[in-house]
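re: that chain from earlier
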Amino acid sequence: MVNPSVEDHRSHVRPIPEVRWEDSWGAIASDGAGNFGIVTDFSSKRKAKNAAIAECRKRGGGMCVVRLEFLNQCAAVVVSTQWAESANGPTVEEAVQAGTQGCGNSDTGKCWVYWTGCSMAKRVW
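^ sequence. v structure.
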């Protein structure tokens, strides 16, 4: 019980704002002939996919299709002279590891990292 003669300071304390997170989508599109469209930081999967296809076409791609969408994660494209592997994971390192394994399993020669990036959730109030 609060003493009525003593001012109650609890009513003057601001509540701590609830932390909110906004999802972030990325996508990788390719035409299978070496042209890629890679985008990050989109607010929806649909927007990310459409932007990746548009970027692939802008870079000369013909029949561009989405190879990978990723939400609040990182991604990598690992390639050889005849193969491209897109992979995602919680970190760049894990995405590269998965992509390297997939490319290596293709038996198409030496693989190297073509691209890495992340599309992580953003803190909003």
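Helices lie at 45-58, 92-104.
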